[in-house]
Design brief:
four-stranded antiparallel beta sheet, 31% strand, 15 strands, 234 residues, mainly beta
Length: 234
Protein backbone atom coordinates (compact mmCIF):
# COMPACT_ATOMS: atom_id res chain seq x y z
CA UNK A 1 0.00 0.00 0.00
CA UNK A 2 1.31 3.43 -0.96
CA UNK A 3 0.37 6.65 0.83
CA UNK A 4 -0.70 9.06 -1.90
CA UNK A 5 -1.47 12.06 0.28
CA UNK A 6 -1.96 12.95 3.92
CA UNK A 7 -4.00 15.80 5.39
CA UNK A 8 -3.40 17.57 8.68
CA UNK A 9 -6.53 18.84 10.42
CA UNK A 10 -7.14 21.45 13.10
CA UNK A 11 -9.21 18.94 15.04
CA UNK A 12 -9.47 15.21 15.70
CA UNK A 13 -10.92 13.40 12.65
CA UNK A 14 -13.60 10.85 13.51
CA UNK A 15 -16.15 9.75 10.92
CA UNK A 16 -15.07 9.65 7.27
CA UNK A 17 -17.08 9.26 4.06
CA UNK A 18 -16.66 9.78 0.32
CA UNK A 19 -19.31 11.80 -1.53
CA UNK A 20 -20.84 10.86 -4.87
CA UNK A 21 -18.46 13.34 -6.53
CA UNK A 22 -15.35 12.01 -4.81
CA UNK A 23 -14.98 14.65 -2.11
CA UNK A 24 -14.01 13.69 1.44
CA UNK A 25 -16.37 14.26 4.38
CA UNK A 26 -14.73 14.36 7.82
CA UNK A 27 -16.21 14.81 11.29
CA UNK A 28 -13.86 17.23 13.08
CA UNK A 29 -14.53 17.60 16.81
CA UNK A 30 -12.07 19.59 18.90
CA UNK A 31 -11.52 16.76 21.40
CA UNK A 32 -10.27 13.21 20.94
CA UNK A 33 -13.33 11.72 22.64
CA UNK A 34 -16.80 12.96 23.52
CA UNK A 35 -15.88 12.56 27.21
CA UNK A 36 -13.58 15.56 26.74
CA UNK A 37 -16.21 17.73 25.05
CA UNK A 38 -16.48 21.34 26.19
CA UNK A 39 -19.35 23.74 25.39
CA UNK A 40 -16.66 26.10 24.12
CA UNK A 41 -15.85 23.67 21.29
CA UNK A 42 -17.22 24.37 17.82
CA UNK A 43 -17.30 20.92 16.26
CA UNK A 44 -17.81 20.72 12.51
CA UNK A 45 -18.05 18.46 9.49
CA UNK A 46 -15.68 19.41 6.68
CA UNK A 47 -16.01 18.57 3.00
CA UNK A 48 -12.73 18.57 1.06
CA UNK A 49 -12.26 18.46 -2.70
CA UNK A 50 -9.18 16.24 -3.22
CA UNK A 51 -8.34 17.85 -6.56
CA UNK A 52 -8.43 21.50 -5.50
CA UNK A 53 -8.14 21.20 -1.69
CA UNK A 54 -11.14 23.54 -1.44
CA UNK A 55 -13.05 22.98 1.79
CA UNK A 56 -16.58 23.60 3.04
CA UNK A 57 -17.21 23.64 6.78
CA UNK A 58 -20.64 22.67 8.09
CA UNK A 59 -21.55 23.78 11.59
CA UNK A 60 -19.19 26.72 11.97
CA UNK A 61 -21.92 28.71 13.71
CA UNK A 62 -21.75 26.23 16.59
CA UNK A 63 -25.47 25.43 16.63
CA UNK A 64 -25.60 22.49 14.20
CA UNK A 65 -23.57 19.84 16.04
CA UNK A 66 -22.51 19.00 19.57
CA UNK A 67 -20.20 16.04 18.86
CA UNK A 68 -20.46 14.74 15.27
CA UNK A 69 -19.04 11.25 15.36
CA UNK A 70 -19.93 9.55 12.05
CA UNK A 71 -20.98 10.76 8.61
CA UNK A 72 -22.46 9.28 5.43
CA UNK A 73 -24.02 10.54 2.19
CA UNK A 74 -27.27 9.13 0.86
CA UNK A 75 -28.23 8.38 -2.73
CA UNK A 76 -29.69 11.86 -3.18
CA UNK A 77 -26.53 13.67 -2.11
CA UNK A 78 -27.78 14.58 1.37
CA UNK A 79 -25.24 14.48 4.20
CA UNK A 80 -26.22 12.37 7.23
CA UNK A 81 -24.40 12.95 10.52
CA UNK A 82 -24.77 11.02 13.77
CA UNK A 83 -24.23 13.22 16.82
CA UNK A 84 -24.08 11.10 19.95
CA UNK A 85 -24.01 14.00 22.43
CA UNK A 86 -26.95 15.73 20.80
CA UNK A 87 -28.61 12.28 20.63
CA UNK A 88 -29.65 12.87 17.04
CA UNK A 89 -29.05 12.24 13.36
CA UNK A 90 -29.03 15.39 11.24
CA UNK A 91 -29.72 15.15 7.51
CA UNK A 92 -28.91 18.21 5.43
CA UNK A 93 -28.23 19.23 1.85
CA UNK A 94 -24.80 20.19 0.53
CA UNK A 95 -25.99 23.79 0.65
CA UNK A 96 -26.26 23.40 4.43
CA UNK A 97 -30.07 23.45 4.48
CA UNK A 98 -31.35 21.02 7.14
CA UNK A 99 -33.91 18.53 5.86
CA UNK A 100 -34.62 16.80 9.17
CA UNK A 101 -33.29 15.87 12.59
CA UNK A 102 -34.06 12.40 13.98
CA UNK A 103 -34.03 12.01 17.77
CA UNK A 104 -34.76 8.30 18.11
CA UNK A 105 -37.90 6.58 19.36
CA UNK A 106 -39.85 6.79 22.62
CA UNK A 107 -40.14 3.03 22.83
CA UNK A 108 -39.52 -0.09 20.82
CA UNK A 109 -42.38 -0.94 18.49
CA UNK A 110 -43.54 -4.45 19.35
CA UNK A 111 -44.19 -5.31 15.73
CA UNK A 112 -40.76 -4.05 14.75
CA UNK A 113 -39.14 -6.12 17.49
CA UNK A 114 -41.12 -9.20 16.44
CA UNK A 115 -40.03 -8.74 12.84
CA UNK A 116 -36.44 -8.33 13.96
CA UNK A 117 -36.67 -11.52 15.99
CA UNK A 118 -37.98 -13.36 12.95
CA UNK A 119 -34.92 -12.26 10.96
CA UNK A 120 -32.40 -13.12 13.68
CA UNK A 121 -28.95 -13.92 12.33
CA UNK A 122 -30.26 -13.76 8.74
CA UNK A 123 -28.54 -11.85 5.99
CA UNK A 124 -30.47 -8.85 4.70
CA UNK A 125 -30.76 -7.55 1.14
CA UNK A 126 -32.12 -4.25 -0.16
CA UNK A 127 -33.72 -4.21 -3.63
CA UNK A 128 -36.67 -2.80 -5.59
CA UNK A 129 -39.91 -4.60 -6.42
CA UNK A 130 -42.04 -4.33 -9.58
CA UNK A 131 -43.82 -1.32 -8.13
CA UNK A 132 -40.45 0.46 -7.82
CA UNK A 133 -40.68 0.31 -4.02
CA UNK A 134 -37.59 -0.11 -1.87
CA UNK A 135 -37.71 -3.45 -0.07
CA UNK A 136 -35.58 -5.28 2.46
CA UNK A 137 -35.60 -9.07 2.40
CA UNK A 138 -34.12 -11.64 4.77
CA UNK A 139 -32.38 -14.88 3.86
CA UNK A 140 -34.30 -17.82 5.31
CA UNK A 141 -33.03 -21.12 6.67
CA UNK A 142 -33.16 -22.63 3.16
CA UNK A 143 -30.76 -19.98 1.90
CA UNK A 144 -33.31 -18.20 -0.29
CA UNK A 145 -34.57 -14.68 0.24
CA UNK A 146 -38.07 -14.60 1.67
CA UNK A 147 -40.86 -12.07 1.25
CA UNK A 148 -39.82 -8.46 1.97
CA UNK A 149 -39.98 -7.46 5.63
CA UNK A 150 -40.23 -3.72 4.93
CA UNK A 151 -41.23 -1.57 1.99
CA UNK A 152 -41.14 2.20 1.73
CA UNK A 153 -41.62 4.58 -1.16
CA UNK A 154 -38.92 7.15 -1.83
CA UNK A 155 -40.81 10.04 -0.23
CA UNK A 156 -39.92 12.42 -3.08
CA UNK A 157 -42.24 14.69 -5.04
CA UNK A 158 -43.10 14.12 -8.70
CA UNK A 159 -40.22 16.47 -9.54
CA UNK A 160 -37.80 14.36 -7.53
CA UNK A 161 -37.28 16.89 -4.74
CA UNK A 162 -37.26 15.78 -1.09
CA UNK A 163 -40.46 16.10 0.91
CA UNK A 164 -39.45 17.82 4.14
CA UNK A 165 -40.75 16.24 7.34
CA UNK A 166 -40.73 17.82 10.76
CA UNK A 167 -39.49 15.23 13.25
CA UNK A 168 -39.94 16.45 16.83
CA UNK A 169 -37.68 15.45 19.66
CA UNK A 170 -39.50 12.85 21.79
CA UNK A 171 -39.70 12.98 25.55
CA UNK A 172 -38.40 9.59 26.55
CA UNK A 173 -37.84 7.75 29.80
CA UNK A 174 -35.67 5.20 28.02
CA UNK A 175 -31.91 5.42 27.66
CA UNK A 176 -31.23 8.35 25.32
CA UNK A 177 -30.73 7.68 21.64
CA UNK A 178 -26.98 7.21 21.18
CA UNK A 179 -26.23 7.13 17.44
CA UNK A 180 -22.80 5.92 16.45
CA UNK A 181 -22.13 4.25 13.09
CA UNK A 182 -24.21 5.44 10.14
CA UNK A 183 -24.51 4.14 6.57
CA UNK A 184 -26.74 4.62 3.54
CA UNK A 185 -27.80 2.06 0.95
CA UNK A 186 -28.14 2.68 -2.77
CA UNK A 187 -31.84 3.51 -2.41
CA UNK A 188 -31.31 6.25 0.15
CA UNK A 189 -32.18 4.39 3.36
CA UNK A 190 -30.23 5.57 6.40
CA UNK A 191 -29.11 2.90 8.88
CA UNK A 192 -27.96 3.99 12.33
CA UNK A 193 -26.25 1.97 15.06
CA UNK A 194 -27.78 2.93 18.44
CA UNK A 195 -25.28 2.03 21.15
CA UNK A 196 -27.62 2.50 24.12
CA UNK A 197 -30.56 0.46 22.87
CA UNK A 198 -28.48 -2.30 21.24
CA UNK A 199 -30.23 -1.77 17.92
CA UNK A 200 -29.99 -0.60 14.33
CA UNK A 201 -32.57 2.00 13.27
CA UNK A 202 -33.81 2.02 9.68
CA UNK A 203 -34.80 5.46 8.35
CA UNK A 204 -35.91 6.62 4.94
CA UNK A 205 -33.79 9.15 3.04
CA UNK A 206 -35.50 12.09 4.75
CA UNK A 207 -34.98 10.78 8.29
CA UNK A 208 -38.42 9.25 8.83
CA UNK A 209 -38.28 6.21 11.13
CA UNK A 210 -39.30 2.97 9.42
CA UNK A 211 -38.44 0.31 11.99
CA UNK A 212 -35.78 -1.23 14.20
CA UNK A 213 -33.94 -3.45 11.77
CA UNK A 214 -31.86 -5.31 14.36
CA UNK A 215 -32.20 -5.46 18.16
CA UNK A 216 -30.71 -7.28 21.14
CA UNK A 217 -32.91 -10.21 20.08
CA UNK A 218 -30.52 -10.56 17.14
CA UNK A 219 -27.46 -10.46 19.38
CA UNK A 220 -26.84 -6.72 19.11
CA UNK A 221 -24.85 -5.31 22.03
CA UNK A 222 -23.48 -1.77 21.94
CA UNK A 223 -23.14 -1.50 18.13
CA UNK A 224 -20.70 1.24 17.17
CA UNK A 225 -19.94 0.71 13.48
CA UNK A 226 -22.00 -0.22 10.45
CA UNK A 227 -21.41 -0.71 6.72
CA UNK A 228 -23.26 -1.91 3.61
CA UNK A 229 -21.46 -3.67 0.76
CA UNK A 230 -22.04 -3.11 -2.96
CA UNK A 231 -24.55 -5.97 -3.06
CA UNK A 232 -26.70 -4.33 -0.39
CA UNK A 233 -25.73 -6.62 2.48
CA UNK A 234 -25.47 -5.13 5.97
Amino acid sequence: MEIVESIVFDGFPRGLAITTTGSLLVCLPKSKTYFEYSPAHVNIVRQINPDTSDAINYGESGDLFVYPIRVAMNHYGDICVSDNLRHSVTIFEKSGKINSIYYGQKSTDDLGRESAQNTSRSQLRVSRNNGNEEVISARGSDGDFEEPIISARSGRSSKGTPIARAIPEPESEMSPFDPRGIACDRFGHVLVADYNSNSVHLLDHSGRFLRLLLTDADGMFGPTSIAIDEDGFL
